[in-house]
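From the methods appendix. Each design record in this collection lists the tokenized structure first, followed by the designed amino acid sequence. Records were kept in a plain field format so they could be parsed without special tools. The example shown here is representative of the layout used throughout.

RECORD:
FOLD TOKENS (390 positions):
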């Protein structure tokens, strides 16, 4: 089926963190207003609004309706999307599909979450229910640190990665997060800080885990015809999207040294975009836990199986390395408001491809202007991989 080209023409991003200063509508509007201004359009120009949000933490049961009304978009077609931690990328996909199919020429995507409305134990329980509730959560008490600890120990046993390797991922994330004024955790840390932090689910410690965050991110998408009509100088084209899923019950899986959903989704995205892993010059990957970033290097084809920890040891995933990854601090330091994360990745990569990142020390050197966003829901329960190109 022939589809139309789709570009990101405007982006916006709120401050991530504990945002008790705003309600969910106000938080969403922070990024919506910025994205609309960036694109040069008004709320009344938007015929389609896709809202990515889990929404079990805060007061609004119908967030898309409330956000549209508050933002001046009542009357637009509304879509509320959920795909666990991959919700933001799923929301991008719905808007992309609406434009690519010819249904609309312009769409707005906003990902938003206010997770700090509940206490930490309640938040952990609600997230834990996203696994196999009746078997793994209710019977064995597994939450997501426990799930990813299984992957960490399997990788360490099979490939020789170490606790120090995991710590290096956290140190890198905090280094870039400290430079990002919108990040939740803006403090540099050392390997010793990570190793001496208290154990959450061995070998994962406090600094191996992303924080529970509030925040929003938004993007305006447009057809090629609309890009020309608006006179957009630096559109960022969505050239490939892959999506896949894995079992909700981890005990059904064959191994714990990678996420098959990532492998499948990335192959789809590379094929659609007509590129290979070696063409990607900057990436945002789903580092909810430090081991998740190492697995992503391998599953996305940035290195061979079992070699992900070597990339971070050698500094190959920093600015100037083979493949700079998570130059905004990633989920680990920037924060992980679940519904916003996938859209936040698109915001960062759009700015990278436009070469608008501040400070400039966070800017990846570019020649081909190709970027990749990798967004996982659960432990590979969902996965979206999106290729962007300027």
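DESIGN:
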């Amino acid at each position: 089926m022939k589809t139309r080209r789709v570009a990101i023409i405007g982006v916006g991003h709120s401050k991530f963190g504990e945002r008790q200063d705003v309600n969910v509508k106000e938080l969403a509007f922070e990024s919506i207003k910025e994205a609309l201004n960036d694109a040069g359009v008004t709320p009344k120009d938007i015929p389609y609004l896709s809202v990515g949000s889990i929404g079990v933490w805060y007061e609004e049961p119908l967030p898309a309706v409330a956000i549209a009304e508050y933002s001046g978009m009542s009357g637009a077609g509304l879509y509320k999307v959920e795909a666990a931690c991959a919700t933001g990328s799923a929301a991008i996909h719905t808007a992309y599909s609406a434009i690519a199919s010819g249904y609309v020429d312009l769409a707005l995507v906003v990902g938003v979450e206010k997770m700090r409305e509940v206490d930490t134990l309640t938040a952990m329980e609600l997230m834990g229910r996203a696994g196999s509730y009746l078997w793994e959560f209710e019977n064995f008490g597994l939450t997501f640190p426990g799930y990813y600890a299984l992957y960490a120990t399997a990788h360490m046993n099979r490939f020789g990665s170490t606790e120090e390797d995991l710590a290096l991922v956290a140190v890198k994330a905090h280094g870039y997060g400290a430079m990002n004024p919108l990040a939740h955790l803006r403090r540099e840390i050392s390997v010793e800080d990570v190793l001496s932090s208290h154990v959450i689910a061995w070998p994962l410690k406090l600094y191996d885990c992303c924080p529970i965050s509030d925040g929003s991110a938004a993007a305006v998408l447009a057809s090629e015809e609309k890009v020309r009509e608006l006179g957009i100088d630096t559109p960022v084209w969505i050239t490939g999207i892959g999506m896949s899923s894995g079992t909700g019950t981890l005990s059904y899986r064959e191994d714990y040294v990678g996420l098959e959903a990532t492998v499948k989704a990335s192959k789809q995205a590379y094929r659609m975009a007509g590129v290979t892993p070696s063409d990607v010059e900057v990436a945002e990957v789903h580092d909810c836990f430090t081991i998740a970033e190492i697995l992503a290097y391998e599953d996305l084809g940035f290195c061979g199986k079992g070699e992900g920890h070597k990339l971070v040891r050698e500094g190959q995933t920093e600015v100037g390395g083979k493949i700079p990854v998570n130059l905004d601090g990633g989920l680990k330091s920037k924060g992980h408001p679940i519904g916003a994360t996938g859209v936040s990745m698109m915001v960062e990569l759009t700015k990278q491809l436009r070469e608008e990142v501040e400070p400039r020390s966070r800017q990846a050197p570019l020649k081909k202007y190709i970027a990749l966003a990798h967004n996982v829901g659960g432990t590979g329960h969902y996965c979206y991989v999106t290729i962007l190109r300027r």
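APPENDIX NOTE: The first helix runs from residue 24 to 39.
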